[in-house]
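Milestone M4 deliverable, item 7.
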Amino acid sequence: MGIGLDELGYHEKLYILAFDHRGSFEKMVGDVDRVPGAKTLIWEGFQRAVELGAPKASAGVLVDGQYGPTVAREAKAGGYKLAMPVEKSGQNEFDFEYGEQFGEKIEEFDPDFSKVLVRYNPEGDKAMNERQLGKLRRLSEWLHEHHRKYLFELLVPAEPEQLEKVGGDADRYDTELRPELMMEAILQLQNGGVEADIWKIEGIDDREACREIAQLVRREGRERVSCVVLGRGASDAKVDEWLRAGAGLDGYVGFAIGRSIFGESVKAYAGGDGFDRDAAVDKIARNYLRFIEVYEGAPAPA
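Output delivered:
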């Protein structure tokens, strides 16, 4: 495996406010020069949430070095958990944002977690999956040689024939096919030498499927490896459902949610006229706090 199992994993609670978006943020704000300001707005909302009672020991941000370097440094200096992306933004196939310099960039900012967003369908393009696997394994080995943590965001986009099986219904794909495909993807990645400390998992409605995924990521001695739920920009009701499905299960430690927390506030910021900064900051803080409450308030597993 190339890493001591006693070093692999992370098992403390983790509530990440994720705003490492780059390409999608440019579109959301509409003016590249104003993107850093939007990141600062979200950071202010996060800090207010901590003032209002978010647990500092579990609170973290996921922010990029392109538009959020100041936020990243302030979060690190403030003693918050810091995660930063390693992938090039907006690509269907994983690649390193800084090419061969990926290690230097990680060491420059010194995040607690280095995050990748990967689109990997186990029944998809085999050659592409192999190319991705090689790079992701290389990152895995580098991170663990340097005693760093690997946060792996796995997306399993539907292949055309998979969608056909569910009559073209994306919701049915999510419910009926995706959980099984995610497990197969995790298996292929682990068998290919990719050892994540935390798997960032697309929302699943079914608690039993969440339990199976948590058991899978911890197989064969990986006992400290954990999962967090991601938000995918979904409605509050949908995200609540996903949080409740995973919360309290052995192997789930929290969430990494972005647009569902800050989307409305950033759109208001982008709109400009009559923008109420204090109200926007407050909304971000309260949305983030609410998701923590939903996660912590979920019933303990039977």
